[in-house]
Amino acid sequence: MGWCCSGVRRALALLVLLFVLRGKGCCCWGLNPNSGDEEKSLRSDPDSWEALHRHKRSWVWNQFFVLEEYTGNEPLYVGKLHSDVDKGDGKVKYVLSGEGATSIFTIDENTGDIHATKRLDREAQAYYTLQAQAIDRLTNLPVEPRSEFVVKVQDINDNEPKFLDGPYLAGVPEMSPLGTMVVQVAATDADDPTYGNSARVIYSIIHGQPYFSVEPKTGVIRTALPNMDRETRDQYVLVIQAKDMVGQMGGLSGTTSVTVTLTDVNDNPPRFSYQYTVLESLPVQSVVARIKAADADIGSNAEMDYRIMDGDGPGMFNITTDEDTQEGVIILQKPLDFETRSGFALRIEATNRNIDSNFLSLGPFSDTTSVKVAVEDVNEPPLFSTQLSKMNVSEDAKVGTSIGRVSAHDPDTSNSGIRYSIDRNTDLERFFNVDALSGIISTAKPLDREANSVHNLTILAIEILDPNQVGKGIALISVRDVNDNAPVFAIDYETLLCENSMPGQVIQTISAVDKDEPLSGHRFHFALDASVAGNMNFTLRDNKDNTASILTKRGGFRRREQPVYRLPVLITDNGIPALSSTNTLSVRVCDCDSDGVALSCGAVAYTATGLSTGALLAILGCIITLLVMVLLIVTMRRRRKQPLILEEERDIRENIVRYDDEGGGEEDTEAFDMVTLRNLNIIRDPTVRRDVTPDTPTFYHYTSASRPPYRSLPDNVVFREFIWERLKDADVDPTAPPYDSLQTYAFEGSGSVAESLSSLESLSTDSDQNYDYLSNWGPRFKKLADLYGNSDSGNVLS
After folding, report:
1. What is the CATH T-level fold of the domain 488-600, as seen in this structure?
2. Which is higher by pLDDT, 263 or 780?
3. What is the value of pTM for the model shown?
C-alpha cells in the first residue's frame, strides 16, 4: 500500500528517494496476509525466488503533516492512500482506523483521499497514530496488510509567552556595583520549539530603565546604575516583556512585573532626623510638620528661630516659629506632585534668639536636624495635554468628518487607560461625537453656522481602572461659513405710489440682508425678474452700495384701473457659488394730496346699502343647512323596510287572518275538539317529510308507546321535552317555511299547584275539586254548573 503526500516539497522529496533507491536496486514488496509464510519459504528454498510473485509497491510514507487551527470552510486535505492492487475498477475499498478516525479524519473509500474535518490544536495533541488498510469491496478481505502511519499537527504561532512564576519579587543590596545580578525570569511558549521561531523568546525591559537591564536570551536582570541609595529610593517595579519569533515584528508577547527592593547596608552615620508623610493633594499653606529643638532653658532664653538651610525643591517649604510652643512649623508653599517627586529631604537649623555674650564659649547655640518629607500618592483625575483645544470645521462638513483630537493622560503611576466622552449638557443636540479610545472629535449631524457659529464642548476623560476619576477639558469648535443662504429683502417694504407721480420718480429704495458672513463682506446685485424686465410701469436702478431704487416709467396711475402692482426683484450675492432669490415688492396706488402724502390707497371703496357680504354668506349657509335637514327627514319618513319574501309566500301562521263568521261559542263542540287542541299528553303523529331524516335528540330515551305524560316528568325536564317535541314537529313539517320563524305555544308547565286554569283541558282530566256551589250562583252560572258541578257523572262529553 503506497502513500501520496500533498505538497510540492514532499512530491519532490519522494521523486529523489525513488531515484536513489532505483539506482541501488532496492525495491519494496507488497504485503499481504501470507507474507510470513513467503518469508519462511524464501529462507528454506533459495531457488524459490523465481517462483514468487513480486508485488510492485510505492515508497511508504509513514508521516503526514497537517496545519493546526485551519479556518477554511472545506475539510483540510491531508494526503492520499493508494494501493498498487487498486486498478481503478472500484474493487478496492480503503478503510481508516485509529486515533480520530471518522471523528477527525475521514477517508474516501474509493479514492483514498484523507481529509481533516475539524480544527486541530497542536498544543492539545501533537500527532495522531492511524492505521489504513485496503480491502476487497466484495469479500471484505484485506488485499494488503494493515499499515500504520502518523499525522503530525504542524505548529503555527498561536500562543504567547507566559511567565508561569510571575510576578517576581527580588532584592539586591544598595550601593551594588554595575551589572549585579538581581533575578532571572523565564517565560514558556506552548508552541513547538522544534519548528520555526514560534517558541524562541527574547526578553526586554519595558519599564524600569535606566536602573536595571535584562539579558535578551537568558532573562537575567542586572543593575544598570551603580551606587543606588536605599535612603533615596528603596523599591523599583520593573515590567519585563517576553516576545516570541525572536522578537521580530508579528510575534506574540507576554509581560510580567518584577518588584526589586534595595536592601540596607550600613552606609550612613547616625543622625537625629524627622520623617513625615503628606498627601500630594495637601493644599498650599497647609502645615506639613512640627519640629522642636530641646532647650533646657526657660522663658526668653528658650526662644528659637528656625530656618531651612538647604534641601530638595527650593521654595517648596517654609518654616516659622510657633511662639507658644517654640516649635518649628513647616508650611507647604507650592503644590505637591507624587509623580514628579515622591520625597523631599530638608536640613533645618534651630538657633537661640536671645544669645548672652557672656556664654559664647559654651556655644554654638544652634543645632541642625534632617527632615524627610514623603509624598503619598493619591489617585488624581486624568489631565489634558491642552486644557483648551481650539478647532474649526466647515458648516458644510459631512457627517463623520474628523475635526480634531484631544489627548489626556493619567498622572498617577498606574498610568490607567483613558476613555473619552462628551458632556451632553454642553452638546444637547448631539452635533458631535468623540471616539472613546482615540479622542478624535467628529461631526454627528449637519452643522449650521447661522444657527450656532461656536460650540463650546466639555470633554470628559475617564480612567478605565477607576471610572470615578474624571478629568475635564474644553473643546472650542468654530464653524466656518459657506455661502448657503440667499439674500432677501432687509424688511417687508410697504411701497405707496401716488396717482399723480411723474415718470422717473423714485418710489422706493430697497436693501437686502444675508445670513452668511463672507470674509470680504457682502456685495448684492439687484435686478428686475426676467418676467417683468420689459414692463412699462417700473424700472430698477442698482445703486452699487447694496441698495437699489425703484422708479416709475410713466405717470397717470389710477386706483380704479389697478390698485396694486407686484414687482418681482432678483437679488444675487457675491458668494461662491453665488446664490439668488426673487422677492416680491408690492406697490399700492394711492390718492395723495399736493405734498405727496397718501390719503387713501388700494381699490376704490363702493358704498352699498343693506347687509354686508359676510352677513349674506352666513344667511345663505343657514338656508342651505335647513334645506338639507328637511330633505333628510322626508327621506327617512318615506323609507320603508322591504319584505324578506314575496307577499304570496308568507306563512299564514305568522299573520292575523280575519274571518267574517261567528262560531258557536262554548256550545259549539262539533267544529273541532278543543280538548285535543290543548292536550299535551296526546301523542301526535306528524306527517314526516320525505326529504329529511329527522334525528332529534331528547333528554330521556323512550319509545313513543312508553312515553310518560308531561305531568309525570321531573319539573326541570317538562319544558325541555316540550321544546324538543315542538322543534321536531317543525323540522319534519313539509309546509314549514324555508326561513327562520317564531313559534309561540301556550304551555304553562306542570309545576303549578293549581295546575292549568284553562277549562279546555278540564274535561279530559280527573279533578278532585267540588264545583256544586256553582248551581247556587244563579242562572248566569248554570252552564258552568252543568259542566263542572256533576262530578259523579264522569265525563260530560262521553
Report:
1. Immunoglobulin-like (2.60.40)
2. 263
3. 0.36
